[in-house]
């Protein structure tokens, strides 16, 4: 390749890379469910988008948000210039939210209340806590002052002028978690977060170089955990005003990622120095707790399961067969059986699955999976232990918490529009009747059925109250208080023979297991642990529970000797901020039909400037999307000074099924005097229709693509012989199936299958080519051990000789710059003609037929997870691949001549800008063919195969 060709290649790659970076910052496309019924409630500071069924929640959201607005405005000394968009969605049976200031201030609120113990269990009104957390993000991330504000006034809401976006997640999440924390409210004061940090201190605090990076190691909540305690440390050590100065100073910062200089400006110390002080503060604070706990009568029992897993159900199939879910986040979650110290796999399950054991070797599972593409809901499955068969009993039912009778009738809890209800179902999970329906603020996280008492034991949280334990009589359908207090009482289940209940409580400041007999008012503690004890189950004369450790929860057992009377030290009531019966009518608001035009106007423009000796471009780029992310567009327009022509591209995406791209690009060639003597123009347009069918473990995609691509000379200097015009128009159809899975601390897909079938024709559109082509790309992944994978690939393609040829060899594989950031995000589907074969030069073989096979052994080398504060770069892990591959490309009238190679690749998973994780491949390949084989050393960005 000549130097001029290399320059042109680098120039084109640079252009595409810039566009991809802009797309990365623009493409937060979590589209809400398509509907023409969306409404918008507008107040002074907010546009709240919702479906009519959530009108009351929209009004409550408006009231809470407007009341929090002046508080956050004063706290962060900032007022967003435009209204904040808030989207209410009830499409996930998991509580969460998100906030982004780019390209406009937008908050997404999931309408499922937090109902899981262990982290987010201290709150008055779950919606108020969620809104306060997410709005803190908006006020913080949107803030720009001084010179940054001046640039934003010129260019609009361009990503570079949001300084607070360019920080590690623990800075931003820590501030929002600190803001949600009040007396008796929020994670920053909860027993759960104290437990997590106590274990961090006991096990050894993480360095800031690790906390800066994505959550790839335990604790997965480290950004929230370390972040909130960091702001508490600043307040304790340097005063409240230090936090204000830290935010203000960085909000006037034009240089992204200058975290250390900001810290030095405010404290005279960089973040590493502050982290040392912070670590000393944590050690002093929590070592005192640990010392006091160790001086007490520690009672933890013995471990019965040797792996630390995520918190999940436990139960007994018979008197000595323990059933539990093994999910260490490094492999597929599995339902396990433990009998006589021997473990047996029952079946694979989805993440966050729960179960209850029925009669006759039946286990009922509630599992998350996709429903109608946009929804992630719980459904009920029935697993037969003998036959190992699993049947899905419900579809999109949202039943999460279950209890089962001796005849396998089911009592199940679902939550719709934040309102819980308890239903009676038969053994096939068919609806019988609704037993109870709650009201706003009611949250249920556990139920247990007693046929002897004909009652349900229920852990329930009422609005502005703590978690407490109640009994629901199935005859009278009335509630009875069992344990009610300002401390947390959760995960209650009937004790053996139903003589009482066992449950967890943080009444002493630590989650421990307690017992209460129905014949007595006394409550006694059964455990006294250093960390926290959860999921209590009394089975015969033993207590089983899950003890928290840094890497997860391990199942323990202990005897039932009643230890000590319950001592309630945690007595602070919740700091109630919003009553149940809020008066929305005190606010000025209007409700109208939703329109995407409210947000679709361009929110910024930014100069597009590329200068080379003979290829200077001056222009701009802009993009936007609507609040529901049903529409997204990006426009890049430039005037080529040397070309005297307008070039650029326009991309539009509608929801997740329609994409459109039109672009024009000039390539300039020059002579020895650096004068342009040829301009080659590429014009193309593409339309892509996608029909997805999504499940957690299986994904189908059907695509229809229409592509028109033309290359022609638009300028030739005198005496220059031009290149022939080229027209390449085709229509393609693809079907893909993807069941591959990857896991935390892994380095590639480890199990599953990825199959792509593509067929194309050039007989419909105007094209220099005619005929059809078909390509099958089949990939299989087999787990050999912990993060060891055998990866297989087979490609076969055939085309009419009048179609574009297949090219085999080299490292190029129809380069797709999206894969620079994530190798699994996208790959070329249509008009794909280049296939890599390492150890050979590009286009070593050409033909209208192609065949390629690859075998790789992928294995881990080192898990590092360390990074610099500045520059924002880190290394997550190292892995390696040994490979053998062979292939051939040939024409119909030729004999197939296979060539093969062997090689080794060293894979480095980098971290850039605290969030982006590209892969670097450093490899050696040796082509085994004596004539055309090469010995090749290479460095590539992005993954292969």
What does this protein look like?
The protein has a 16-stranded antiparallel sheet. Strands 4-5-3-2-1-31 form a six-stranded mixed sheet, with helices on one face. β8 (321-326) and β9 (334-339) form a beta hairpin. α9 (240-250) packs across α10. The protein is globular. The chain has twelve helices and 50 strands. With 945 residues, it is α+β, with helices and mostly antiparallel strands.
- SSE class: alpha+beta
Radius of gyration: 30 Å
The largest pleated sheet is described as:
16 strands, antiparallel
Helix content: 10-25%
Can you tell me the residue ranges where pLDDT is under 50 for at least 5 consecutive residues?
A: 1-30, 814-826
Supply the key terms.
single chain; 945 residues; alpha+beta; 16-stranded antiparallel sheet; 12 helices; 18% helix; globular
Give a short overview:
With 945 residues, this protein is of the alpha+beta class.
Which SSEs are present, and which pair or pack?
Blueprint: H1 3-26, E1 39-42, E2 46-50, H2 55-76, E3 84-89, E4 97-100, E5 106-110, H3 126-142, H4 146-155, H5 169-180, H6 191-203, H7 208-211, H8 222-238, H9 240-250, H10 259-267, H11 271-295, E6 302-303, E7 314-318, E8 321-326, E9 334-339, E10 342-348, E11 354-357, E12 362-371, E13 375-384, E14 389-392, E15 399-404, E16 410-416, E17 419-425, E18 431-437, E19 443-450, E20 455-461, E21 467-473, E22 479-483, E23 489-494, E24 500-505, E25 512-517, E26 523-525, E27 533-539, E28 542-549, E29 552-559, E30 564-565, E31 590-593, H12 597-600, E32 606-610, E33 617-625, E34 631-640, E35 645-654, E36 658-670, E37 676-694, E38 699-716, E39 726-738, E40 752-761, E41 772-785, E42 788-799, E43 806-808, E44 834-835, E45 845-847, E46 849-867, E47 873-890, E48 899-912, E49 919-927, E50 935-941
Helix pairs in contact: 2-3, 3-5, 5-8, 6-11, 8-9, 8-11, 9-10
